[in-house]
Write a structure and sequence with these properties.
The protein has a single domain, classed as UDP-N-acetylmuramoyl-L-alanine:D-glutamate ligase, CATH 3.40.1190. It has 315 residues and is an alpha/beta fold. It has helices spanning 37-47, 62-74, 120-127, 142-157, 178-187, 208-217, 256-269, 274-289, 301-310; strands at 4-7, 11-16, 29-35, 52-59, 81-84, 90-96, 102-107, 131-135, 161-165, 191-192, 222-226, 232-236, 239-243. It starts with a strand and ends in a 5-residue tail after the last helix. Helix content is 34%, strand content 22%. The strands form 2 sheets. The protein has a 9-stranded mixed sheet, with helices on both faces. The longest helix is centred in the middle third of the chain and has 16 residues, at 142-157. The chain binds adenosine-5'-triphosphate and magnesium ion. Adenosine-5'-triphosphate is lined by residues 167, 195, 226-229, 231-232, 245-246, 248, 250, 253, 255-258, 260, 282, 285-286, 289.
Length: 315
């Protein structure tokens, strides 16, 4: 089986219990939850039984233990997660506003994540990998960007593949080096997985069919568009297909895109037909939004099959 790796932040997430605005007074909180988009992605890959690992760093603290033990338990290779001697594990405080948007307070850039880079353990993980997943939101920091560049070069040189989820908010685009790093990721991508409008950050075209044509023209093998409660679509040179989302109650949307992406990439590397892979990925995303906590809704293949059966879909 092909080994999938990713490179980027591991954090804990601490959530406000009640919706509202920000954190300027004392409120009930719940957490810590294991989190970080690349970590959620790799946890979901691991739960599907695919060999996988992450290049990251945590502090020498309980938040680090919580994350590393969680990933280890679910089957990810944690050998390239460094332990920073002094800095704390990264964290994100999140509160939902009444309109469904979110307020965040991040401590990532100056956390243990600042130690993420091309360590000897990272090099060993990269050398044993067949596929690299690039999470655009991880490109905020030089050490991560250069490790991703090196991993891209080495994995592509031996015939491996790259997937790319931009997973980016507009404010991040102006961070130094961000646009260049995103462009480099896109140039090397085999499987591109934007959420609806993110696609247009990379195209001259401003309507979907023209943007897809432009991306495929550049040499990307396949594009998967995530459409939240509207499901997802797949495009390659031979055509396109869409699959509706499953009807579930959305409890916490954080992590849906990362879990969806992990399921799709795993199925794609296993040679599954795109329509079937979309169905499995939609089921994984639906299960992710039904559970509170960013990584708490990741699924095993058995759980996905049970869910599909409950929805009347042949697993
Ligand atoms: P994220 O906020 O994690 O970055 P994203 O924008 O990358 O999310 P979404 O499109 O929101 O990704 O979600 C990914 C997938 O999860 C969807 O394509 C769909 O399959 C599933 N999903 C998301 N929201 C819902 C929902 N409310 N009901 C059912 N399925 C959902
Ligand atoms: Mg996303």
């Amino acid at each position: 089986m092909k080994k999938i790796i990713t490179i980027g932040e591991i954090v804990v997430e601490i959530m406000a219990v009640e919706p509202g605005h920000g954190f300027t007074s004392a409120i009930p909180l719940i957490g810590p939850f294991a989190s970080g988009a690349p970590a959620i992605f790799i946890d979901q890959v691991a739960k599907l039984g695919q060999p996988c690992g992450i290049v990251s760093a945590v502090g020498n603290d309980d938040f680090g233990v919580l994350n590393v033990e969680r990933l280890r338990r679910d089957g990810a290779d944690v050998s390239a997660i460094g332990i920073h001697p002094t800095a704390a594990t990264g964290s994100a405080f999140v509160r939902y506003r009444p309109d469904g948007n979110r307020d965040f307070i991040y401590n990532i850039r100056h956390s243990a994540c600042s130690a993420i880079g091309l360590t000897p353990e990272a090099e060993a993980l990269i050398d044993g990998a067949d596929h690299l997943h690039i999470m655009g939101s991880a490109l905020f920091f030089d050490g991560i960007v250069s490790a991703i560049f090196a991993a891209t070069r080495r994995i592509k040189a031996k015939g491996g593949t790259v997937s790319f989820d931009p997973n980016i908010r507009k404010e991040m685009l102006d961070l130094p080096g961000m646009r260049e790093a995103l462009a480099h990721a896109l140039e090397n991508t085999d499987l591109f997985m934007p959420s609806g409008p993110e696609m247009f950050l990379f195209t001259k075209a401003i309507d979907e069919p023209a943007a897809i044509a432009e991306l495929l023209e550049r040499g990307i093998k396949a594009v998967v568009i995530k459409r939240g409660a509207d499901g997802a679509s797949y495009f390659d040179r031979n055509g396109e297909m869409s699959a509706p989302a499953f009807k579930v109650e959305e409890v916490d949307p954080t992590g849906a895109g990362d879990s969806f992406g992990a399921a799709f990439v795993t199925c794609w590397l296993r040679g599954m037909a795109p329509g079937k892979a979309l169905t499995v990925a939609n089921a994984t995303g639906a299960r992710a939004v039904s559970v509170k906590g960013p990584m708490e809704g990741t699924s095993t293949m058995a759980e996905i099959e049970t869910f599909l059966t409950s929805q009347g879909v042949a697993a």
